[in-house]
Structure formats: C-alpha cells, structure tokens
Design brief:
single chain; 4-stranded antiparallel β-sheet; globular
Length: 161
C-alpha cells in the first residue's frame, strides 16, 4: 500500500493529465451524484463534506453515511437494486474527483503515469473505506446504549493517541 498519499495533489495532477477523470465543485446543498444508475463510478472527496442520503418510499430522508476530505464513495460500494433512492449531497462547498472504476486499469490516450499511481494507491483507499464500514457495523451491533457509547469513546481515544 502507498503511504502518505496526498489525495488533493494527486487529483489535481491526475485530472490535468488524464482524459478519463473529472474534477467538479459543488456548493452546499447540491447533489454530487446519485446511485440510481449503475455507472461503476468512483468518487474521491478532495475537499469539503457530504452526506449519503437515502429517501424511502414514503419520502423520509435518512443520512446513511457522512463523507469528509479524502473519502471514497460511489455506487460500486452499494447495491442499487433497492426501493430507496441514494443521493450524495454537499454539506458545504466540495471538490470531487470522478472516474469510472472500469477505467482504473485502462490507460488514457496520453499514456499518463497517474494510472499506475492510482492503481498502487487504490488498495489503501478501499481498505480505509472497509475499515470505516466495519467500525460502523461493530458500533451498531452493540446491544445497549452504554456499550455503544463505550465503543464510541474507545474509537475517539484511539484516534487521538
């Protein structure tokens, strides 16, 4: 795995040299992406914060996940064959790198070297995502509020030290 991977610098260089990526900016409240169509899209949040919001059949809004700087998200992580609509909404001004997961191993016409860096860095980004999701499942599987709070405190202390 690649250590000290600076997502913002990489994304800026990758976008300027690769024809298969896009960087877009979003203002607070704007929809970054939806999970209605399976595009195998992968997104990296370069700056800002966003929420993955689910609307159920009755129109109820539920925040499913919160994304902060360097978070990786996209419909490749979720089954879109549900009765719910998933939308990623910007909570503040955001900058997002978009690319298709299928294009990771396919070099662009300019034969840029950034695909190699992306392929080397992708495991660390995905492992971070998996660890985050595993922590959430662990926390939610605690039976009592006391156990959940103790787990949250342990996670916070672990991050501080």
């Amino acid at each position: 795995m690649v250590n000290n991977f600076d997502v913002a610098d990489f994304a800026k260089e990758f976008n300027s040299s690769c024809s298969k990526t896009q960087i877009k900016e979003f203002n607070k409240g704007e929809t970054i992406t939806t999970y209605l169509v399976n595009r195998n899209q992968l997104c990296i949040l370069i700056s800002g914060t966003a929420d993955l919001v689910r609307y159920d059949i009755n129109g109820n809004k539920v925040v499913t996940e919160h994304f902060s700087k360097d978070a990786i998200f996209g419909e490749i992580f979720y089954d879109i064959n549900t009765n719910s609509e998933f939308i990623v909404e910007a909570k503040e001004k955001c900058t997002v790198l978009f690319f298709l997961y299928d294009d990771i191993n396919v070099k662009c016409k300019s034969n840029c070297s950034y695909h190699k860096i992306l392929v080397a860095s992708m495991p660390s980004l995905i492992i971070a995502k998996i660890m985050d999701l595993t922590s959430r499942v662990d926390l939610l599987s605690r039976r009592t509020t006391r156990d959940k709070l103790l787990r949250i405190f342990w996670i916070v202390v672990k991050k501080i030290w």
